[in-house]
Structures are given as C-alpha cells and as structure tokens.
Design a protein that fits this description.
This protein has 265 residues and is an alpha/beta fold. It has 6 helices and 9 strands. A 9-stranded mixed β-sheet has the order 1-2-3-5-4-6-7-8-9, sandwiched between helices. The longest helix has 27 residues. This is Hydrolase. It comes from Deinococcus puniceus. Keywords: Hydrolase.
Length: 265
C-alpha cells in the first residue's frame, strides 16, 4: 500500500540521524532474519550480512550497523543455526564447544541458499551484481572467515573479536573435526580469494588474547595476501581497553571499512 505523508511532518520511523529506514522480519531459506533497509523507493546498492556471536541472537545486532541504510545498503541479521528462534534444533549430545562449532558448520552450509533468497527478494541490480559484505563478531567471525573460502559472491569481510587459530581439544564430533581441519584460517588462509578483509580485536579481550589469537591469525593472512600480491587489501586494527565486545570505535572502523570506495561507485 502506498501512502502520502506531509513533507513537514512525515511518518514516524526508525532513524539513523535524520535518515529514516525500515525494519523487517523475514524467514529466508528457513533462516529467521531481521532486515534493516532503506525506505521504499530507495535503491538497494549492497547487501551486508551480520553474524552474531555464540549464545546471542539477531536482535542483539539490531541498530549496530543501521548507518549503512543511508548509503542504500540492506543490513541482514540472521539467527545463526541453533541460536535465537532456532535453539530447539540443538542436538542433545554436544558439549559447549561442539555447540559453537555445529552452529558455525550449519550456518556456513545454509549461507548460499540464504544469499540466493536475498537476491530473489531484492531483485537484480539494474547495472551490476550488488556487493555482498560479511560482518561477523566472535563466533560470527568464524562464519565470516569460512565464507571467505566457500562463497565467491562475498566481496568484503570484517572479522571482529575472533580467531583463526581454531585449536579446539574439546571438539570430538568427527564432522566438526573435519570442518575445523578443512577451513582453519591459520593453515588455510590461502584458500580465500584476496578480497578486502578487516581483522579487528580488543586489546583487553580475555576470550581471544592478542598474542594467542589476533597476532597469529593476522600473520597467516598477511603471508597469504602478500603471496597474492594483495597486501593492501588486508586491514588490521586493535582497540585499547576493549574486551570481548564490539566497541563504538570498532563499529565505526567497520563502517568506514565497508564504505571504502563505495560512495564513488
């Protein structure tokens, strides 16, 4: 339904600054999602998939990246497998670390169908394929790094407060050991195409201390990108005083990274 609103007193809506945007809930390819998108009539120029961390849900990321809607970006926040509305799917025989990695494995496996559904929802771009960006924090960073290797439609990735080391002695399920060994960034960074990547961590993160996680992960990507002649596409950042969370400064850094060269396109 199309309605007319007064230009001096328009319809109240979610705002970023003075820019209105829409929030929708949809189930796409079986995945419950929240979508923050520009208002009706504004062209969707890019898609940004945002993956949350373990024991969280899509609602926790609502509003974090909504500034992108003012640039014509649809921000799509799925519930990761076994999380949020999908907790009832959790197998009963998983320990805590296996629960995390089974969620990652399933979320990665369903991503191509989710991306297909998003392309169907928003329709073809009139001139070119829309950029597809991935942002993942903590467990979502595992998903983001794996999708770099497996999903060639991804054009830019921000992996936050996460790790590529993937040393998981408590994970014993064979299919999960196979997943870890097939995609561990520390040893498989060269499997991913050299697309723009931001690796960002908190300097006070007790879950992923820099020396044990950020530094070796960054070194693996640094070597892979240098080998590909694409060192300029790797971005690294650490944030003083920040523990295991996405800080305001980190979020703003992500926004700048995602919008890099985008407004010129």
């Amino acid at each position: 339904m199309t309605r007319e609103f007064s230009p001096t007193d328009p319809h109240a809506a979610p705002l970023h600054g003075q820019t209105p945007y829409q929030i929708e809930r949809r189930v796409l390819a079986g995945v419950p999602c929240l979508i923050e998108r520009p208002v009706e009539g504004v062209e969707i120029r890019a898609l940004c998939l945002v993956y949350h961390g373990a024991w969280a849900a899509k609602e926790g990321k609502l509003g974090v990246y909504s500034a992108l809607t003012g640039r014509g970006v649809a921000v799509v926040i799925p519930d990761a497998a076994l999380h949020g509305e999908r907790q009832a799917d959790t197998p009963p025989d998983l320990n805590a670390r296996e629960y995390v990695w089974e969620s990652v494995r399933r979320t990665v496996a369903e991503a191509p169908a989710l991306i297909d559904a998003l392309e169907d929802l928003f329709g073809p771009h009139p001139e070119k394929r829309r950029p597809l960006w991935i942002v993942g924090s903590s467990m979502g960073g595992y998903v983001a790094q794996t999708l770099m290797q497996t999903e060639r439609r991804v054009s830019r990735v921000a992996a936050l407060i996460t790790s590529g080391v993937w040393a998981e002695p408590e994970v014993g399920q064979p299919q999960l050991r196979e997943f870890l060994d097939a995609h561990r960034p520390l040893t498989h960074a060269t499997k991913a195409p050299s697309i723009p990547l931001l690796l960002a961590s908190g300097e006070a993160d007790p879950t992923f201390p820099l020396a044990a996680h950020h530094h070796p992960t960054a070194a693996a990507y640094r070597a892979a990108y240098a080998q590909a002649g694409a060192a300029h596409l790797l971005h690294e950042a650490t944030f003083a005083g920040v523990a295991h969370y996405t800080s305001v400064s980190m979020r703003d850094h992500v926004l700048d990274f995602l919008k890099e060269n985008f407004d010129k396109a």
